[in-house]
């Protein structure tokens, strides 16, 4: 899991080893001549009811140049239902866009890695992700960097990053360059905290971990708070760690970046909490909330969130799809309901 990769201090590669090939097929059978690239644009507009990222085609071209097969955006079986798959990087892991149900119009869809129990934040948007890929390609291969990757990024890539930009910056640390020139990334911030701990600078580690959780850095994601809880526990602040873990579990469990049990243990949440969540998705619980004054739409929306949290425990996303979609429909989010249900 992601937590282990971070705690062990190993650098996380965004584009992982090539898995077996998956062929992309159109979600619209009548348009068999269309490319996988235009297919994703259409899917995002017509099914996800959102605005396609401006340079999504360039990102898909980069994946292709790296030898990976783009998958159909409707190949959502077994995945977090709010995601739009782009490419399968291993049998149990995909790179996708995340379609938040109530995202503000100005918010771009973040790029995430989807695994069995949830998602890991990769970038705030497609441009930021392309920027990082080109940077890592340049640094990892130095002067022999693959021209094919840069060609695939096209003019958009040139505007984001040019070969040699890292060397010309005078910065010696890739994470420093990422944070100053590209954007905020969980793995970079977590490595920074870990280095402070390894150097014995616990104050700086706590400050950096607190910055990680700052509102607006990673909206909607529980991972920063989960990581902060682990740091606090490691530094002997068990009471603060418990509070931080409980705060993390107030957000969507499928955004923790690790298994629920890891954070529940720090929060000192036992099996009774799971039982409480299961009770929350009963008809009696919804009726009770409404009787207490909660609007019906809000009660339905909250129930969808509880259902997704419970599904994240075992990665059983497809088992509750119909009910999650019905909740979104009752919450007045008909477009999201249809998007959640859509499968090739």
UniProtKB/TrEMBL annotation:
InterPro entries: PAB. It comes from the Eukaryota. This is Cyclin delta-3.
